[in-house]
Amino acid sequence: MKNEEKRAKVDICHNEREGFFFCDVDGHRCVVEYEMKDNGATKDVFHTFVHPGCRGRGIAGELLKAVVNYAAERGKKIIPSCSYAVTYFRRHKEQQGLLAEGISVEDDGGNCRLPKIREA
Questions:
Q1: CATH of the domain at 21
Q2: Would you give per-residue pLDDT tens digits along the chain (120 residues)?
Q3: CA distance 115 to 3
Q4: In the chain, how many domains are there?
Q5: Domain that holds residue 86
Q6: Would 116 be classed as within a structural domain?
Q7: Residues 6+ apart with CB under 8 A from 115
Q8: Is 46 exposed, middle or buried (0-12, 13-18, 19+ CB in 10 A)?
Q9: 3-class DSSP state of 28
């Protein structure tokens, strides 16, 4: 199967009150969780999860893209605490202007914190 054929078309939703973006794929909830910092000026992206059966289809990238677009549209900055968020910004250097002051994705960083549980 070609890489383009494996890409999932997903509808991404945002639960701003609880601090996460999500999509449901093949009956599984996939999420990117964040916490607001600096009086709402910065999103600390601390956890990304895609069910093992849904991996390899670009879902995590689409979720992070939604976070990045949301932050950019609202003038927010991002702290990539999650290892996948660090990877995303390494792959998308054009988005690194959204990183919070003093944040570098070229450092090791990116240790996911214990996530909240999100039920489908």
A1: 3.40.630.30
A2: 444 456 668 999 999 999 999 999 999 999 999 999 999 999 999 999 999 999 999 999 999 999 999 999 999 999 999 999 999 999 999 999 999 999 988 865 555 554 444 444
A3: 30
A4: 1
A5: 3-98
A6: no
A7: 31, 33, 46, 47, 49
A8: buried
A9: strand
Q: Is residue 54 part of a domain?
A: yes
Q: How far is CA 108 from the centre of its chain?
A: 18
d(C-alpha 54, C-alpha 70), whole Å: 24
Position 92 in a domain: yes
* 3-state secondary structure labels for all residues of 42-97: EEEEEEEECCHHHCCCCHHHHHHHHHHHHHHHCCCEEEECCHHHHHHHHHCHHHHH
36 in Cβ contact with 52 (< 8 Å):
no
